[in-house]
Design brief:
Blueprint (H helix, E strand, L loop, with lengths): L3 E7 L6 H17 L8 E6 L6 H11 L4 E6 L5 H13 L4 E4 L11 H9 L4 E6 L7 H16 L8 E8 H7 L9 H8 L3 E6 L13 H15 L2 H29 L7 H33 L7 E5 L4 E2 L4
Parallel strand pairs: 1-2, 1-4, 2-3, 5-7
Antiparallel strand pairs: 3-8, 4-6, 5-6, 8-9
Length: about 325
């Protein structure tokens, strides 16, 4: 029987952590009773440098349920994608299969059983996919749909309406661990692994407690990181726009010459100023875009650790480590 690890990245989740722990423990107990996972299955909370009592609560849960609740304490705040990666890499050596889910419990925990069934059916990766977005605001729903369409247009391989609620087998996580880039976008990396996959569908719920840790600013940053980490199409688009402007400039030059030789020359202050501002803005945009890619190269070639693990609480040992 396979040993399941439910990986839960946490940042300032003291309001919801106890609820999440109780809910997920009940899920594990139910799956164990049904004979679908091993008794040694556990929850792995990853503390992403929280400023509240999140880690203290994780330690309390571990002391009360040492076989069921484990924890990873990162040395500082590194962000959701890195924290989730730290949890997956840690769980890889302690389990046979992992399920990643956010602490807010907006993802439906009842479909974890269906994920396990799909895993037993031979799937190495099972994506949790939202059926619809009725609980989202009009703005969030519209921007999310635009985001997925944009990612598809940019050639980024991703699963529509899927975030980070997924099951991964041990060998899938081992393959994922070989992807060493610093600019992490798991929703784009996981589909590249290439093993047999399946989807399970669910309705997303309201957040149990606390506030969302993904405001608009972070969502936009994640979107840009996903595009720039997996596609050079934006640079190609800027290049194409440059060719279009050059073509229009040639037409404008021909028009100017004809006007000059026919004596129909008039001052064009407005058009000149607009042209200067437009081309100047375009140049800055192009330089900035290229600079973003160069910045990513700069971050990658330094090969700095993506995260530092300060402490690991498990049913077997408590260790200090770094990655």
């Amino acid at each position: 029987m396979e040993k399941l690890a439910i990986v839960v990245p946490c940042y300032n989740e003291e309001e919801v952590l106890k609820i999440a722990s109780k809910t997920l423990r009940e899920v594990l107990d139910d799956l164990v009773k049904k004979g679908k996972i091993a008794e040694e299955s556990f929850i792995l909370f990853v503390n992403d440098g929280s400023k509240d009592r999140t880690w203290e609560l994780i330690e309390e849960e571990h002391r009360e349920f040492p076989k069921r609740v484990c924890g990873v304490k990162l040395a500082g705040n590194v962000g959701h994608q890195y924290a989730l990666t730290a949890g997956l890499i840690t769980a890889k050596d302690l389990s046979d299969v992992t399920v990643s889910i956010d602490a807010d419990l907006q993802d439906d925990v009842t479909v974890i059983e269906e994920m396990i069934d799909q895993f037993h059916a031979g799937n190495d990766i099972v994506y949790g996919v939202r059926k619809e977005r009725k609980t989202d605001t009009f703005f969030k729903r519209t921007t999310a749909q635009c985001f997925y369409k944009l990612m598809n247009f940019m050639g980024v391989k991703s699963v529509y309406n899927h975030a980070d609620f997924r099951l991964m087998s041990k060998r899938a996580v081992e393959e994922f661990s070989k992807y060493q880039e610093n600019n992490l976008y798991l929703r784009g990396i996981v589909p590249l692994i290439g093993y047999q996959t399946e989807k399970v569908y669910y309705d997303r719920k309201e957040r149990v407690a606390g506030e969302s840790k993904y405001p608009l600013k972070k969502m936009l940053a994640l979107a840009f990181n996903g595009i720039s980490s997996f596609s050079v199409k934006p640079i190609s688009m800027v290049l194409g726009l440059g060719f279009v402007i050059v073509f229009l400039s040639v037409i404008a030059a021909i028009y100017a010459l004809i006007s000059y030789f026919t004596g129909n020359v008039e001052p064009g202050w407005t058009s000149l100023i607009l042209s200067v501002w437009f081309l100047g803005g375009l140049n800055l945009l192009a330089i900035g875009l290229v600079g973003q890619y160069i910045g990513k190269i700069y971050m990658e070639v330094k090969h700095r650790p993506r995260y530092n693990v300060e402490k690991v609480l498990s049913s077997e040992t408590e260790t200090d480590d770094a990655h």
